[in-house]
């Protein structure tokens, strides 16, 4: 019976992914998001690898075909020519892509996609093609985007992927709520007003994007917003570890003629693991909040932390089962060892005691202890709102990330709890996010990463 349910849900998830596939990439959702989004494509590839591995590879290759010369991978690759009902569009940027970025899940996704079909991947030279591009992407984040504490800085709330999280409230207050470009809100035709950021937020989002665009998307001058995010930083560290595995698979990667790997350091064995360790150590030193029992954001312009409890701050649990000396990781592991559930040996990627505290916070009243699904913002935070986007609803990508983390640590109770989130995906028509108390769908539906990650959990 349960098995039948899982098969039906998997079939339904595949149907969503098939209908959102454009021939070169997958849109996050028709209507609300009609182009290619960066971290969405990484999550989509992680799910698609199970039933269409060649398409999962194409998804990532299409995205990296739009990579900028400086290494950045754009937040949005506009599907110019297709029905464009998204704002701001390509006209705003005067380019075929946005100049912003999104969290770096890509190397991890590339590794998982490769492991799902190593023969097909080898035939296409998938890893050999992507490795130098992934390395340049990370080089951009470690280089021009490196902030005062050595961690990557996001220049716009859209870059964090968690657009209206309370983590950005104080910094956004300093951004004038106006833009020269009139703000258009086609998004409100596809999702409820109470489920999307407000118009004051949007005026700031536009104004900030204009400032960055008008500075040529250069990173050498401050633009009035610069935030270090524990989720973004964690994903960079996890992806560095995956890049280490990719490099080990391709002993000659980066040495071939004409391949620029964005810095000789990356050709040194262990360089990716060392980069991951540097990120983990910097997060431990600068982002840990002892009172809240999780990691917080840091404002790069003031040097001060932002003491708000969000799911972003639980994400470093992904590094808990990682040895920073060897880079061995269960979370980045192949499908075969996905459910192995044993943490790697050696020193943990986080400072002693931190993973236990994170598990306690995860189980506590602000998160899983306060209701059935994992909220994006702690139920104890004054901004918590069960309907409003990244200020409370439960998102499938963050549940998936935490699920991978607790599975790797062999934590049965939170594993079972986080899996429950995926049981509401198919019956709810693959919602973008859900009410963390009732599981009722919010935002848009037939949402690609919901379908893809549900597939990954079920298969
Ligand atoms: C949401 O963000 C876009 C801007 O990038 C928007 O609200 O229009 C976020 O949930 C983001 O994380 C996601 O990548 C994007 C597309 O699904 O939608």
TrEMBL record:
Signal peptide: none annotated. It comes from the Bacteria. It holds the Pfam family MGH1-like_GH. The keyword Cytoplasm does not apply. Residues 178-197, 327-351 are annotated as: Disordered. Residues 33-450 form the Mannosylglycerate hydrolase MGH1-like glycoside hydrolase domain. The keyword Hydrolase applies. Residues 184-197 have a biased composition (Basic and acidic residues). Keywords: Glycosidase, Hydrolase. Belongs to the glycosyl hydrolase 63 family. This is MGH1-like glycoside hydrolase domain-containing protein. The lineage of its organism: Bacteria, Bacillati, Actinomycetota, Actinomycetes, Micrococcales.
């Amino acid at each position: 019976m349960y098995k039948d349910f899982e098969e039906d849900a998997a079939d339904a998830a595949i149907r969503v992914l098939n209908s959102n596939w454009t021939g070169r990439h997958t849109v996050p959702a028709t209507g609300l998001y009609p182009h290619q989004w960066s971290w969405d494509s990484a999550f989509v590839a992680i799910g698609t690898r199970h039933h269409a591995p060649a398409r999962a590879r194409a998804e990532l290759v299409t995205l990296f075909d739009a990579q900028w010369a400086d290494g950045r991978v754009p937040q949005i690759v506009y599907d110019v020519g297709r029905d464009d009902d998204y704002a701001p569009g390509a006209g705003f940027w005067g380019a075929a892509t946005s100049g912003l970025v999104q969290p770096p899940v890509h190397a991890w996704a590339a590794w998982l996609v490769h492991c799902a079909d190593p023969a097909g991947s080898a035939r296409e030279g998938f890893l050999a093609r992507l490795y130098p591009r992934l390395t340049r992407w990370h080089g951009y984040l470690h280089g021009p985007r490196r902030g005062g504490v050595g961690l990557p800085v996001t220049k716009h709330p859209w870059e964090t992927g968690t657009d209206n999280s309370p983590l950005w409230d104080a910094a956004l207050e300093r951004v004038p709520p106006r833009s020269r470009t009139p703000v258009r809100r086609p998004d409100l035709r596809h999702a409820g007003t109470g489920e999307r950021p407000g118009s004051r937020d949007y005026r700031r989002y536009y104004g900030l994007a204009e400032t960055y665009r008008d500075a040529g998307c250069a990173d050498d001058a401050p633009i009035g917003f610069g935030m270090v995010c524990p989720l973004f930083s964690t994903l960079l560290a996890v992806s560095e570890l995956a890049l280490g595995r990719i490099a080990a698979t391709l002993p000659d990667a980066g040495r071939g003629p004409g391949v620029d790997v964005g810095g000789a350091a990356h050709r040194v064995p262990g360089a990716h693991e060392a980069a991951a360790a540097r990120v983990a150590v910097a997060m431990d030193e600068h982002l840990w909040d002892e009172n809240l029992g999780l990691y917080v954001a840091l404002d790069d312009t003031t040097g001060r932390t932002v003491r708000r409890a969000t799911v972003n701050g639980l994400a470093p649990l992904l590094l808990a089962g990682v040895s920073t000396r060897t880079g061995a990781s269960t979370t980045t592991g192949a499908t075969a060892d996905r459910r192995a559930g044993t943490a790697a040996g050696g020193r943990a990627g986080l400072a002693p005691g931190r993973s236990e505290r994170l598990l306690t916070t995860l189980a506590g009243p602000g998160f899983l202890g306060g209701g059935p699904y994992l909220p994006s913002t702690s139920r104890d935070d004054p901004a918590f709102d069960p309907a409003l986007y990244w200020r409370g609803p439960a998102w499938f990508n963050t549940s998936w990330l935490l699920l991978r983390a607790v599975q790797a640590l062999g934590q049965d109770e939170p594993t079972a709890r986080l899996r429950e989130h995926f049981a509401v995906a198919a019956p709810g028509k693959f919602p973008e996010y859900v009410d963390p108390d009732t599981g009722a769908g919010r935002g848009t539906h037939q949402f690609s990463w919901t379908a893809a990650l549900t597939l990954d959990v079920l298969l």
